[in-house]
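User: My collaborator sent over this chain with a note saying "see what the structure looks like." That's all I know about it. Can you take a look?
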Amino acid sequence: MIEGKGICKSFGNRVILSDASFLIPEGQIVGLSGKSGIGKTTLARIMCGIISPDSGNIYRNGAALWVNNTYKRTEGLTIQMVSQHPFSSLDPRQKLISGFREIIHYHHFASYGKETDNLIENTAREVGLTMEILQQFPHQISGGEAQRTVIARCLLFKPELLILDEATSMLDVSTQANIIGLVKRIQTAQGRSILLISHADDLVKATCDRIYEIDHTKFRLLPSDSEEQKEI
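Assistant: Without extra context I'll predict from the sequence alone. Here is the result:
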């Protein structure tokens, strides 16, 4: 379970998040909607340890991830993020498969040789990629293939929470549906969670178990059909 409590963040005099609190239960898909530039990505970056909150904290199973303004990197690896621009996460100078090997060996996910190759092949297959595609350089693949590659690399960590930050907004509707569907199948089948960040309300409503909305720095949990709106 991932929980945010009282998250505040400002840049200069501009308040981005004000006392934002939320809950992402195990095995659920949680949506975060709101206009572009309103703080959704800022929150995701705080959750992943990229930037620190001014106050408040992120908790993993009750344990704070930010301590004395320092992120608990080891525990934080259980939260992975896929951004809107997948090519920015890929080294243009190396083949895709080399990026997989670097991650696997750095984090000791598998031993060198056949064990690494099997892990890459199995992970790639999960997201619909072939080993032939992984032999390409980033400039040789499509946007959908790049997005699948980045998702596959995140899945190597077996993340408790996978954040999709406008991750399908650059893709056509059919590819969006395929990618959301495959991530949902992989994550929820293993009791892991997804945070879907998008300004596409229809996509969020059709996909998520619960939905939060940011409106003027404030969070609120949108109601189900039988609930009243609840301020968070």
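A starting point for your reply to your collaborator: The chain has a mean pLDDT of 88.
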